[in-house]
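FORM 12-B: Structure-to-Sequence Request
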């Protein structure tokens, strides 16, 4: 594919109908555009099979509940929608974006209980999220914005509104020539990148921030299980910024990022070491098995 995401060939599944890509439109007064009342999933299909597809569908529904949106679709119905979108576009290896949102209706204020909830599924070919960073390691800035207190925002919802600070942080990072930014949480602990979880290696052990103020990613969970099966110690804990100096390796995980090595965070350097490479290769085998 080339060109803007609004001007492509293909089909998008929208509320039970496969529409021509360019015809998948919403009204300018759609509630989600004004008040961020939307949730989404990012998924990848490998060899025609979406990795952890049902888990993603379940999380989409749960994310909706966390921001007071009841999706009018079951897990099975969402699964069928994703299958139809893949088939209609003739793709077997693809990125899958399922999105649910409050549309235009009787309400046009903060409250929107009477507005209908919509669901769309778009799929497209998408290569490495961080380009050639998979080989040489991504370069990360350190964001000034922090992940909010879970008492302020539902941190376990994959909700559009929670990504505003991520967008600003990544824009600032890219302006400095970085691939992404590492974010702290509201207490000052290391949290994650703008759209991916983070792992560190020290003396053969893997350390990763405790997911108590940010999304516990499905890829993160997969990697932790994989490492534990290999007999590698994984420590989930609060990590202070000053600890960066003592870590030897680092990588990011996420559906889009998959497993991406990190070579630099601010002034701290990391090697793309053997364990990082092994994890990346093992993950590739798992998703294609």
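FORM 12-B RESPONSE
SEQUENCE OUT:
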């Amino acid at each position: 594919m080339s060109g803007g995401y609004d001007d492509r060939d293909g089909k998008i599944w929208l509320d039970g109908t496969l529409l021509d890509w360019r015809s998948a439109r919403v009204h300018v007064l759609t509630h989600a555009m004004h008040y961020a009342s939307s949730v989404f999933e990012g998924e990848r299909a490998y060899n025609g099979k979406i990795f952890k597809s049902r888990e993603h569908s379940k999380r989409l529904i749960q994310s909706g509940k966390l921001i007071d949106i009841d999706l009018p679709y079951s897990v099975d119905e969402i699964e069928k929608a994703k299958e139809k979108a893949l088939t209609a576009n003739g793709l077997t290896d693809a990125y899958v974006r399922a999105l649910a949102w409050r549309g235009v209706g009787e309400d046009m204020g903060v409250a929107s209980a009477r507005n209908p909830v919509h669901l769309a599924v778009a799929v497209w070919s998408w290569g490495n999220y961080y380009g050639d960073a998979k080989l040489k390691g991504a370069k990360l800035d350190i964001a000034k914005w922090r992940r909010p207190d879970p008492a302020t925002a539902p941190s376990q919802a994959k909700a559009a509104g929670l990504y505003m600070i991520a967008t600003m942080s990544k824009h600032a990072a890219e302006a400095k020539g970085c691939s992404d930014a590492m974010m702290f949480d509201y207490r000052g602990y290391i949290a994650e990148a703008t759209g991916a979880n983070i792992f560190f290696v020290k003396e053969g052990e893997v350390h990763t921030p405790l997911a108590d103020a940010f999304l516990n990613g499905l890829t993160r969970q997969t990697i932790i299980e994989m490492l534990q099966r290999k007999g590698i110690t994984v420590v989930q804990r609060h990590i202070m910024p000053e600890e960066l100096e003592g870590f030897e390796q680092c990588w990011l995980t996420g559906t889009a990022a998959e497993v991406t090595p990190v070579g630099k965070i601010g002034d701290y350097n990391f090697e793309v070491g053997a364990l990082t490479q092994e994890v990346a290769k093992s993950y590739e085998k798992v998703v294609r098995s």
